[in-house]
Structure formats: C-alpha cells, structure tokens
C-alpha cells in the first residue's frame, strides 16, 4: 500500500484507515477515528511511542471491514468519547493494549456490536467512565449477531504493569444478545457503579 507522512497533528472531522500505511509525527484528534471502516477493507494503525489518539466522537475498529488498532508502544494513549469494536455485521475488529498504556472512554464501549470484536488488555488500564451521554458502560455482543471478547491480562501475569479495568456510570453486560466472553488471566476488574450482568437476553 501507499505511505503518507504527516508532520503535524491532525484535526479533522473523520479519519478512516482502510489500508496502506499512515505515519503521523504528532498527536491525532478527530471526531471519528475508524480502522477498517468500509466493507472489504483491511486497515491497521499502531499508535506511535508517546503519541495520543483522541476521538471526540467514536473510535470504530472493524466497522464494516477488518481493523486492528495497537496501543502497545511506550507512552501511547487512546482517548474516546465512545468506541465500537466489530460494529457492523461484516466488521472484525481488534484492539490490543500493552506496555502499561491507557485507553480512556468517557461514555461507552461496545465489543462485538453486530460483528466480531476483541479487546486484548495485556497490561495497562482501560477506563470506561460513563461521565457523559447515554448509553454508558461496557457491553459485549449487544446484538444477536455480535461476538465480543475481552481478555484481561496474560496467563501467569503480565510481567510489566498488571491490567486494570474500571467501569462506572453504566452496566457491564456480557452476552447482551449475542455471544460475549470476558477472560481474566490477571489484574483487576472494578465495577465501580451500576451492575455486572452475565447473559442479558435469554435467546
């Protein structure tokens, strides 16, 4: 694919990465940050060391295509108002967090909304704060076709910074209407307010 190099921060309405190689020399702030937006595409983005990516609206990984987003380099950070991993029926999205990095979401996180979604928190912190808007909280497999997975830690421990998940302002719901699984190898899961619900809908 092609290569595009940008030497200043991006501030635009939307950024969709559907293939190729994107190198950014500064921080990214957009309304919608999508990786694998369109059907039939395969996009990926690796947040650089010390770089922050902020979406004032939605972070979508695997919206209708295949998307991979890595938050693994030292000092990389991700911030979203809301996020959907595996959004549409053909969507397949993966987000990996490691090296003690942080992803902070102020409204809600949906994993495997109608497609297939995986969030792999090897080490670091996932904050779902639910401080604004509605709905809030964490949901896996919100719709019947959804397949969502959250993996916390690694077998035997991370060896760096043990993972922490903080959920407040809304429920955590696994298998909301589809297939949802949370696997916890190590670390801490804090449901700070509201409820933890396993198997929301009886299909």
Give the arrangement of secondary structure elements.
Layout: E1 3-6, E2 10-17, E3 21-24, E4 28-35, E5 42-46, E6 52-61, E7 66-71, E8 77-85, E9 92-97, E10 102-111, E11 116-121, E12 125-128, E13 137-140, E14 147-152, E15 164-167, E16 172-174, E17 179-184, E18 188-191, E19 196-198
Parallel strand pairs: 1-3, 2-4, 4-6, 5-7, 6-8, 7-9, 8-10, 9-11, 10-12, 10-13, 11-14, 12-15, 13-16, 14-17, 15-18, 16-19
Q: Could you characterize the architecture of this molecule?
A:
This protein has strands at residues 3-6, 10-17, 21-24, 28-35, 42-46, 52-61, 66-71, 77-85, 92-97, 102-111, 116-121, 125-128, 137-140, 147-152, 164-167, 172-174, 179-184, 188-191, 196-198. Residues 1-11 have low confidence and may be disordered. Helices cover 0% and strands 54% of the residues. The strands form three sheets. Strands 2, 4, 6, 8, 10, 12, 13, 15, 16, 18 and 19 form an eleven-stranded parallel beta sheet that branches. With 203 residues, the chain is an all-beta fold.
């Amino acid at each position: 694919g092609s290569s595009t190099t940008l030497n200043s921060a991006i501030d635009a309405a939307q950024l969709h990465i559907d293939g190729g190689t994107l190198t950014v020399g500064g921080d990214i702030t957009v309304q919608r940050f999508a990786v694998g937006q369109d059907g039939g595409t395969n996009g990926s983005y690796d947040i650089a060391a010390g770089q922050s990516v902020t979406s004032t609206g939605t972070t979508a990984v695997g919206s209708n295509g295949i998307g991979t987003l890595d938050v693994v380099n030292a000092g990389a950070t991700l911030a979203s108002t809301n996020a959907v991993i595996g959004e549409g029926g053909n969507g397949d999205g993966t987000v990996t967090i490691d090296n003690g990095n942080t992803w902070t979401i102020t409204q809600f996180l949906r994993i495997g909304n109608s497609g297939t979604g995986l969030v792999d928190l090897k080490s670091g912190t996932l904050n779902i704060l639910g401080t604004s808007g509605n709905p809030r909280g964490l949901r896996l497999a919100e719709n019947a076709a959804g397949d969502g997975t959250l993996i916390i830690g690694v077998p035997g421990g991370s060896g760096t910074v043990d993972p922490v998940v903080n959920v407040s302002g809304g429920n955590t719901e696994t298998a909301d209407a589809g297939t949802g699984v949370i696997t916890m190898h190590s670390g801490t899961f804090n449901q700070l307010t509201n409820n933890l619900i396993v198997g929301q809908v009886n299909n």
